[in-house]
Amino acid sequence: MYNGNNAQFTYQATRISTATKEQLLLITYDIGIKACHVAENAMSNKNGAPDYDLANKEILRAQEVIRELMVTLNKDRAGEMGQKLSQLYDYMYNLLVDANMKKEPENIKTVRGMLEELKATWENALVNLLQEYQDKHPEDKEFASAMSELKGEGKSQTIQTPKPDRVLKTTTMNKNAKAGSFTLAG
User: Fold this and answer.
1) Which long-range contacts (CB under 8 A, 24 or more apart) does 80-86 make?
2) Biggest alpha carbon distance in the chain?
3) CA–CA separation, 45 vs 40, rounded Å?
4) Residue 94 CB neighbours (<10 A)
5) What is the pTM of this model?
6) Region label for 152, one of left (φ > 0), alpha (ψ between -120 and 50) or beta (otherwise)
7) Looking at the predicted structure, is the pLDDT value of residue 99 above 60?
8) Given this model, what pLDDT does residue 172 score?
9) What's the confidence (pLDDT) of residue 97?
10) Is pLDDT above 50 for 133?
């Protein structure tokens, strides 16, 4: 008998256990964004009564994500930017506490927007680092092919939005190690 939840759990566990630390950072942001989205919808349920229990559960999940981001941030290594990012995480955390206490979905929406912007920033930084690696190692054809796919080259696509996950999935762990430790998260 097929169990969809078990298959999804297995997929997620494998995805996390084989992820680079850069991918883990993006996965963490994804979890926080999804939790905020679900909490927003639960709290401002337009089709019926708000589901405050679900909203509370998801807000707590988003708070755990932000706490994890705070704990894993290497402030010493990141310098002033790390300090600012830590302050931003603290602000986001407090907005979620306030949203949960006062049942304000607008605060959750604000945090979700901040998480989305931060994730996009990290994705762009990762793509730039991967591009630098490719520029320094033109002989690495497998990596060049993955970067071309990332950029949508060689395909009849009209949308060329970068998808860093695809590059990292397409390349091997050895290629990621060879590219160096990017230390985006600290």
Assistant:
1) 82/186
2) 60
3) 8
4) 14
5) 0.68
6) left
7) yes
8) 31
9) 98
10) yes
Rounded-to-integer distance, Cα 153 and Cα 140, Å: 17
5 HSE (CA, 13 A, CB side): 0
Residue 79's region, left for phi above 0, alpha for psi from -120 to 50, else beta, is left
DSSP the chain: ---HHHHHHHHHHHHHHT--HHHHHHHHHHHHHHHHHHHHHHHT-TTSS--HHHHHHHHHHHHHHHHHHHHH--HHHHHHHHHHHHHHHHHHHHHHHHHHHHT-HHHHHHHHHHHHHHHHHHHHHHHHHHHHHHHH-TT-HHHHHHHHHHHTTTS--S-----HHHHHHHS-HHHHHHH----S--
Q: What's the rounded Cα separation, in Å, for the pair 58 and 66?
A: 12
Nearest to 90 by CA among 71, 112, 113, 117: 71
